[in-house]
């Protein structure tokens, strides 16, 4: 018996509906928007807001700020691919156990190695004392920036020498490393930043670590959700997206028990159990997604929604996608915001009059939502640079 066929058009239908980009599929809450793509990239502060905006039925930046800093229904975690993501509080324990714990352990080993090599007698006991002092300062002061914590905790003003005796020897303060470690361990979290929602100068608050979930169980839950959002996909796609070992990927998929399907290019891929039928066609939709948006970054192979000829214009040298324009599940151009606030975009093809009208309307919706805020992508791409020049 031949495998069920999932066409390229059907894969694009899934993006409109499952990634909540078609207007009729948009989410009611920020947590729902994040869950629809498993996690929102959070390396760039503005990305979280713009990715959520594209998937929400209503609500401005204040709704996303409430989710992050008041309801705490959305939280930032250093996790997949050693990258900062924002995930729903419901999913956070699984992300923590599946991925973040291993990163935290690696971060601790690395810092202790640097402390030992520095030769000042700083060790695990000293680090534990510095961490405890930082937490005490947060309890006493309330939400604080890294600079404020350093001013309050003498140990955080300690400097160490990295790669002593080598030509790339450098002196480094420990404050950033200690704060990063506390965050990776789940003992502090990012709170409301100084400045607007586009700022990355976060304040920190003391919090309790996430409940422990068996790592294998957590990885299976992540794989199950990812496969629903991103399938058809391959184990190579999941390995790339998570940063797990191939062994862990295969064990997690074995628990999920995915079905195999055929793709139009002749390759096979995986979908959730029973998820082999055609996806309903959503209404026509346009989207302006930010750099690093999950819909553009969800697979190692993105050929079904991106013409390879357009890749060089839309990605930076490190493989990070920039701001993109979408029409019915396909990337058709890029966009940027100029210094005067104008949203500008360029098509990399000819998707037709209906597409141009819908994209124009979506650009106006984005401009109204952003208001007076100014967005500069952290990962500059050739097209984005041209548009703002």
From TrEMBL:
Pfam families tied to this protein: AlkZ-like
InterPro entries reported for this sequence: AlkZ-like
Superkingdom assignment: Bacteria
Protein name, as recorded: Winged helix DNA-binding domain-containing protein
Species this chain originates from: Streptomyces nojiriensis
């Amino acid at each position: 018996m031949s495998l069920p066929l999932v066409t390229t058009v059907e894969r694009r239908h899934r993006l409109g509906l499952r990634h909540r980009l078609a207007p009729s599929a948009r989410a009611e809450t920020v947590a729902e928007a994040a869950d629809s793509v498993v996690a929102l990239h959070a390396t760039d502060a503005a990305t979280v807001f713009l990715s959520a905006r594209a998937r929400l039925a209503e609500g401005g930046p204040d709704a996303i700020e409430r989710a992050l800093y008041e309801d705490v229904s959305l939280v930032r975690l250093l996790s997949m691919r050693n990258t900062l993501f924002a995930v729903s509080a419901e999913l956070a324990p699984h992300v923590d156990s599946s991925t973040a714990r291993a990163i935290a352990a690696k971060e601790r080993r690395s810092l202790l190695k640097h402390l030992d090599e520095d030769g000042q007698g700083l060790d695990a006991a000293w680090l534990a004392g510095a961490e405890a002092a930082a937490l005490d300062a947060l309890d006493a002061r309330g939400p604080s920036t890294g600079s404020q914590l350093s001013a309050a905790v003498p140990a955080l003003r300690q400097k160490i020498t990295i790669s002593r005796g080598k030509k790339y020897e450098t002196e480094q303060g420990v404050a950033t490393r200690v704060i990063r470690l506390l965050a990776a361990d789940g003992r502090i979290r990012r709170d409301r930043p100084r400045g607007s929602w586009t700022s990355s100068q976060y304040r920190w608050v003391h919090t309790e670590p996430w409940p422990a979930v068996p790592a294998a169980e957590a990885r299976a839950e992540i794989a199950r959700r990812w496969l629903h959002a991103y399938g058809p996909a391959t184990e190579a796609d999941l390995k790339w997206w998570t940063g797990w070992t191939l062994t862990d990927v295969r064990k997690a998929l074995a628990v999920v028990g995915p079905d195999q399907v055929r793709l139009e290019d002749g390759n096979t891929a995986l979908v959730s159990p029973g998820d082999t039928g055609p996806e309903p066609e959503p209404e026509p939709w346009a989207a302006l997604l930010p750099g690093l948006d999950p819909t553009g970054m969800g697979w190692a192979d993105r050929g079904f929604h991106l013409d390879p000829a357009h890749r060089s214009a839309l990605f930076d040298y490190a493989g990070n996608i920039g701001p993109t324009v979408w029409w019915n599940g396909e990337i058709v151009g890029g966009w940027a915001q100029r210094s005067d606030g104008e949203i500008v975009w360029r098509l990399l093809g000819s998707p037709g009059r209906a597409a141009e009208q819908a994209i124009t309307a979506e650009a106006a919706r984005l401009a109204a939502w952003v208001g007076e805020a100014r967005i500069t992508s952290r990962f500059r791409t050739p097209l984005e640079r041209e548009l703002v020049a």
